[in-house]
Amino acid sequence: MSFQTSALLLSWVAILLLAFVVSGLVRQVHALTAGAASVARRVGPAVGAPAPRFEPLAPAVPGPLVLVFAGEGCRTCGSLLPRAAQHAGPGVTIRVCYPGAVPADAPEPRGALAEVHGGEAELFQLYQIVATPYGVLVDAAGRVVEALPIGSADALHGLLDRADALAGRAGPTAAPNAGSTTKAVTEGAR
Description:
Radius of gyration: 26 Å
Largest sheet: 6 strands, mixed
Structural class: alpha/beta
Strand content: 15-25%
Number of helices: 5
Distance between the termini: 85 Å
CATH topology of the largest domain: Glutaredoxin
Oligomer: single chain
Order of helices and strands: HHEHEEHEEHE
């Protein structure tokens, strides 16, 4: 056998081996993709489902409730939460929930219309919150209307606008003397 013939034969063997390896890899990727799709879980509560632990969070005056889930050290939360607190007004109640203690730089709430709750790790689990900031809109009957990540001002304003529509109001109401309110913080409120 000449050198050329043996080199050609070895080349074909190498090509066949590479084809088997690639086909095996394609099968593994397909199996992993199919397995990941079946294991993938939904994040956040299901729209239309009853809101977990709604009664302790429910507004004093019936109307939509916006739950904003925030995390300590979350820069996006820090920039968005003051906007949410400013939006609270007649007909729309906002509850900001932290899994641990409320950070010192948390936004100032506006009386009963916006409250900041700390020690809500159990609530994070009930609502299946894996990332912050996350918003959940609940109607007056205690059903989830919408649940979505609110990582931008536009997403937050969209959620608050839908809450306004449920409440039958046109937009955010400016608070008189918003700077003179006291901070109503409940650690581990149940």
